[in-house]
Amino acid sequence: MGKHALLSASSSSRWIHCPPSARLGEKYESKTSSFAEQGTDAHALCEYKVNKLLGKRVRNPTKKLRFYDDEMEECAESYATFVMEELNIAKEHSADPIVIVEQRLDFSRFVPEGFGTGDCLIIADDVLSVIDYKHGLGVLVDAYENPQMMCYALGALELFDGIYDINEVKMTIFQPRRENVSTYVLSKEKLYEWANNTLTPRAQLAFKGEGEFACGKWCQWCPLKNTCRKRTEYNLQLAQYEFRLPDELSDTEIEVVLSKVDDLISWAKDIKDYALVQALDGKEWSDFKLVEGRSVRKYANDEEVIQAVLDAGLDPYEKKLIGITGMTKALGKKKFEELLGGMIIKPQGKPTLVPISDKRQVITINNVKNEFTKITEENNNGK
């Protein structure tokens, strides 16, 4: 496995906002997950698909991909198609644009020892395109002022700015499992301005282990998140309200709680998970103990149960309509659209309260209680 940069582009949102976390995180062992491994497989497939469309002789990696499935195949195909569409756009204003996949990008002129790997670059006169594939399903990734993408763009400019007459960078997140294609365009001058005024000063603090701790959404991927005192202090600020009944709080106080409650829930879960892992490793907590969790009954052997019910003259199976995802896989996307495309509806979702920065359109409801009841009944009847 290759060396990982201390100040990597992928973790830049964290160390830009919270510089000391970079050095403190070094003492924690880097752990992988099945989600990360799945993402690695998806990137390998995407690289193959793009190179194949570019006419290169490449070997199909699918037999070596542990997590390969129909969904990954479809995602990689759509990514490769998108790259070729972007290449055709580049050809409209440049005679000889080039496409490079999985390119090592060095941005150490701005960040000590800073480097990363760009999934796809399209280099042309006037516009440099940086495309990053995200296979994740959990977090919707936005390209707007995304520091990872901006670091990649800086690294790409280090390689090609003298060869091509580049005036702006086009940074795109391609996240097919969330149906998300997010693009942010920035002039080269503005990118360098951000690098000199924000990125480099924060990177220098982070590299030396200096600066102030700060909490925010970037804490989610921090190796310190379970034991970080700053995060604890931040979340325990809610205690000032003593968890009084909502009708005893002012509107302003309720909005303060709402702005922090998701972080509080996430932090509390991280603490519980950390304490459990420690207990499983032998630590004894003074006021807590390990016990066997609740379980539900299950068949000891499914095949024997099936045979026993069949021998009794009964049907052990229940018949139910295959869900949309399963039906799409069974029929194929094209056939599914032909047969069932006109039969698919998307019911209204339940009203939910989100920060004003959320990109979804606001809904206007005269009687929230009646509207909520109506939506719930429609959803239940549609099951």
From TrEMBL:
Keyword Hydrolase appears in the UniProt entry: yes
InterPro entries: DUF2800, PDDEXK-like_dom_sf
Gene3D superfamilies for this protein: 3.90.320.10
GO molecular function: ATP binding; helicase activity
Coiled coil location: none
UniProt keyword NADP present: no
Keywords recorded for this protein, A-Z: ATP-binding, Helicase, Hydrolase, Nucleotide-binding
Listed name of the protein: DUF2800 domain-containing protein
Species of origin: Lactococcus lactis subsp. lactis A12
Encoding gene per record: LMHG_01076
